[in-house]
Write a structure and sequence with these properties.
This protein is an alpha/beta fold and 371 residues long. The protein folds into two domains: 4-171 and 355-370, Rossmann fold (3-Layer(aba) Sandwich); 174-353, Glycogen Phosphorylase B (Rossmann fold, 3-Layer(aba) Sandwich), CATH 3.40.50.2000. The chain contains 14 helices and twelve strands. The strands form two sheets. A six-stranded parallel β-sheet has the order 2-1-3-4-5-6, with helices on both faces. Strands 9-8-7-10-11-12 form a six-stranded parallel β-sheet, with helices on both faces. Helix 1 links the parallel strand 1 (4-12) and strand 2 (30-37). Helix 2 (41-57) runs parallel beside helix 3 and helix 7 (204-216) crosses helix 12 (323-334). The longest helix has 17 residues, at 41-57.
Length: 371
């Protein structure tokens, strides 16, 4: 069976672009992307459905499944394409949601965008979340969200939404990292990696507070400060440049994939101080490349890292409970008291997330809604 899948992404950029590219490259079905640029997120959620509907109606071929991202105003899209896709099954893929997405300092959550997510989920035949943590946090937030409205509160729809919801992790292009050799054995000092977005929800203040605490205690290390800083440049990174300049191997966003892969194969430890994480492609890429993770014992991470690796025998823990615990783990690794997990063990954490493997689950999903 070969299907035509209309993939809707009104905010194509970064990990969403990689997601669409992975589907297109690996699926046994034909993926037809309908996309818009990754600018003006709220406007994409509000008005993108109109433009996406226009684009979709230009395609005359048979469409077997509509696969829409969570930034799609799905109710607007369905109404404006009616009756063209009236009998076409619709899957909504929740990369994130506006009910639980953390707000930047000084920013107020607007109910409109949360309601767009909610209405889109109601309109879809199937709702798929990027992680169990994401799905659970959405359904925990939904009753409180609906309480804010004056009357006719559709709480009875929550159970119906749960019944048609499932979890499927995003695929990752992990095989892109295979041709690159590890160079960390040549490091004169341990190398700590930051490869996530430079954004408030990743809590760079905590990360650099930890680096400063280790530095003040006399531990020596070098830093790789990569990750996307094209939209945000927190002052913590500028202060770090002033303090650690000579010990920073790389600073800023890496455009070139080969250079990025080499940096990950050089780093020894990757640290996450995120306060909210539905999924972390960046941390998974680092782990696959051989970086020992030290991440919160919360959010998405207990779901992705098997419990037996949280505090493995003869090796450093991979998860921490609080800031002091994080300090103790890093201190033990920098002092040589605890060793990093072997690369083969680290790759076992997420090898199944490579697009060449996980694509079968996506293809089975597409076929299941047609049947």
């Amino acid at each position: 069976m070969s299907l035509n899948i209309l993939a809707l992404e009104p905010y194509l950029g970064g990990s969403r672009k990689n997601f669409i590219n992975g589907l297109t490259e690996y699926s046994r079905h034909r993926i037809i992307p309908i996309t818009m640029s990754d600018r003006h997120l709220r406007w994409r959620m509000m008005g993108g459905g109109v433009t996406m509907a226009e684009y979709a109606l230009e395609h005359q071929e048979q469409v077997d499944v509509i696969f829409a991202s969570s930034t799609t105003n799905l109710t607007a899209f369905i109404a404006l394409t009616n009756p063209r896709f009236a009998n076409t099954p619709v899957i909504l893929y929740m990369h994130e949601n506006q009910l639980t997405e953390p707000m930047a300092p000084g920013q107020k959550r607007e109910l409109t965008y949360s309601y767009i997510n909610y209405m889109s989920a109601l309109a879809a035949d199937k709702v798929v979340f990027s992680s169990k943590f994401h799905m659970n946090s959405f359904f925990e937030a939904l009753p409180e969200f609906l309480k804010q409205f004056p009357d006719y509160k559709p709480n009875h729809h929550i159970e119906k939404l749960k019944e048609k919801s499932d979890v499927l992790h995003p695929g990752i292009h992990l095989k892109h990292f295979d041709p690159h050799l590890d160079t960390r054995k040549n490091n004169k000092l341990p190398v700590i990696l930051w490869n996530q977005r430079w954004s408030y929800d990743k809590d760079p203040a905590k990360f650099f507070r930890m680096m400063n605490r280790l530095d003040d205690a006399g531990f020596q290390f070098e830093l790789i400060l990569a990750g996307d800083n094209r939209h945000e440049k927190p002052e913590e990174f500028e202060k770090a440049w002033s303090r650690y300049g000579r010990r920073i191997i790389h600073y800023g966003y890496v455009e070139d994939l080969s250079t990025y892969c080499k940096l990950l194969h050089r780093a020894d430890i990757v640290v996450s101080t995120s306060t909210y994480e539905n999924y972390s492609v960046a941390i998974m890429e680092a782990i696959y490349s051989g970086c020992h993770p030290v991440v919160p014992n919360a959010l998405i991470y207990p779901e992705l890292i098997a419990k037996q690796l949280h505090s493995p025998l003869l090796h450093a823990p991979t998860v921490y409970n609080d800031e002091d615990h994080l300090f103790r783990i890093l201190k033990s690794m920098l002092s040589g008291e605890n060793k990093a997990l072997p690369k083969a063990t680290l790759q076992g954490i997420n090898r199944h997330l490579d697009w060449s493997v996980i694509i079968n689950r996506y293809d089975d999903l597409f076929e299941s809604v047609v049947k």
